[in-house]
Design goal:
By secondary structure, this protein is mainly α. 69% of the residues lie in helices and 0% in strands. The longest helix is centred in the C-terminal third of the chain and has 18 residues.
């Protein structure tokens, strides 16, 4: 693994509070994960 990949994944987690488990962490994948997280949050509120 390239040493920058974990740093980028950690930066995404710090910015969004979402872990990206599958690489590559494309913008489309991050957008889909944030949408799911928002739906789950709104269902629990």
């Amino acid at each position: 693994m390239v040493p920058t990949a974990p740093a980028v994944i950690n930066a995404i987690k710090n910015a969004t509070a979402i872990w990206v488990c599958d690489l590559p962490a494309s913008p489309d994948k991050i957008k889909a994960l944030t949408t799911v997280a928002q739906q789950n949050f709104s269902n629990h509120s």
